[in-house]
Amino acid sequence: MLGARGFPGFAPSSSSCQGIRALVAHTEQEYGYRVTAIQLNFHPNHKSSHKQHRDIYGAGQKGGINCTCSFMKCTGTVCYSIGSSRQILCETITDSRSKYETCGEECTGRKTYKWMHSGSAMHFNAPWNNNHTHGDLSFFSFGAVGQDRRIQSCLM
Asked: Which of 20, 57, 92, 103 has the smallest number of Cβ neighbours within 10 A?
């Protein structure tokens, strides 16, 4: 658990802080992880999205070409969706980190679309993360335009 230090910008007794602590406790109990990082993504409308990517699970990886951050070794990620439904694209990739090889020049890989409804969770571990990317698709938003505000929290 994150202890008494709380979260920057939140009073320790605030309902926001208590909600995050509840997600941390649930994640640690359900998946057997020790949560070391939390990322909150606020999607105010149907135009926002979370681009295709792999998560960073260790010191050998960087967040970008000029990234100087240091990362703790992680076992997996649990993402929770709060507030609306979005379609998630999970894509199998073939590169130096992946165990998969392309089947030919015309091979497009495998793309799987999954719905992540409000209140649901998506879990993936390091082996899955090495072989796939994930992201949410703003143009597949569920509900009326302007009605799909949501918060996505990722715990690592």
From this structure: 103
